[in-house]
Amino acid sequence: MKWITRERPKIDRLACPWLIKRFIDAKAEIIYVPAKEVIAQAKALQAIPFDVPDVEFSHYEDRCTFDYFIEKYNLKDAALHTMALAVRGADTDNHSISSQSAGLWAISAGLAFNFRDDYELLERGMLIYDALYSWAKYLQNEKHTQNPTESLLQRVLHQHLAQEEETHRKMPDWGLPLKKIIQDQIDRNLVPNLTKISEELDLHPAYLSRQFPKYFDSLTFGEYIRKLRIEKAIHLLYHTSHSLSEIAYLVGFSDQSHFSRMFKSQTGVKPSNFRKGIIKGKEIAKG
């Protein structure tokens, strides 16, 4: 069976040949010609035209040619119907249909830019749609950060970025200097003291204590310090080989047991288990 369409494929004219070869006719021949020659060449070559106006295999209603192939051949595979949403969104510039549509368009446009030969482009595009099918069939519930340690680090980062944005939007004049003083003291393994910091900022300690939660994540001064210590501990666990006792000291805890309790209260896991997760994650990454 021969199929013919317009040259310089990007979305439908790569997705449909993939669908034909993988689910309809593995030996199908795909032909690309200039748009104005499709109908004439279809007759001459006894090929079925697709993805051009006024032929059976084309766009219909709000759907694209890939949708029509699925309907025409009564393909029931749920993964294909998931793919169809991504293809339709990419092909019609309606990226709200599927969260994969914008990425599919970007990859397809870049692929067409890099490969000027349509048949080489199709060969590469087959790999893209094989990968998209595997995702739709087996991996839709998979996340990039599978390792619990990576997930925790991602959560800490996202929280930190959100808090930074909120902080810069609302903080009074003394807020950023206070934040820098606290972070500097944490970095130097000092114990931040509210009274001394208040004097440095020329503020009354009682006032600073009352106002602090308004601008620091609804945390008291002590709670905020503990949060910074745990974030520093996570960094040290991930990037150093220090013992847990050494890390406890470096982040300002008087003993390891206190450090372990505070770490678990903040993260839900003990630092020893957290480190095991890091080691396991690195082993998995090495393959």
From TrEMBL:
Annotated coiled-coil segments of the chain: none
SMART domains listed in its UniProt record: HTH_ARAC
Pfam hit, one: HTH_18
InterPro entries: ChrB_C (IPR018634), Homeodomain-like_sf (IPR009057), HTH_AraC (IPR018060), HTH_AraC-typ_CS (IPR018062), Tscrpt_reg_AraC-type_HTH (IPR020449)
Swiss-Prot/TrEMBL keywords: DNA-binding, Transcription, Transcription regulation
Entry keyword annotation includes Nucleus: no
Sequence ranges assigned to domain HTH araC/xylS-type in this UniProt record: 176-277
PROSITE patterns registered for this protein in UniProt: HTH_ARAC_FAMILY_1, HTH_ARAC_FAMILY_2
Record's keyword annotation contains Transcription regulation: yes
GO terms assigned for molecular function: DNA-binding transcription factor activity; sequence-specific DNA binding
Protein name according to UniProt: HTH araC/xylS-type domain-containing protein
Source organism of this protein record: Pontibacter virosus
Organism lineage: Bacteria, Pseudomonadati, Bacteroidota, Cytophagia, Cytophagales
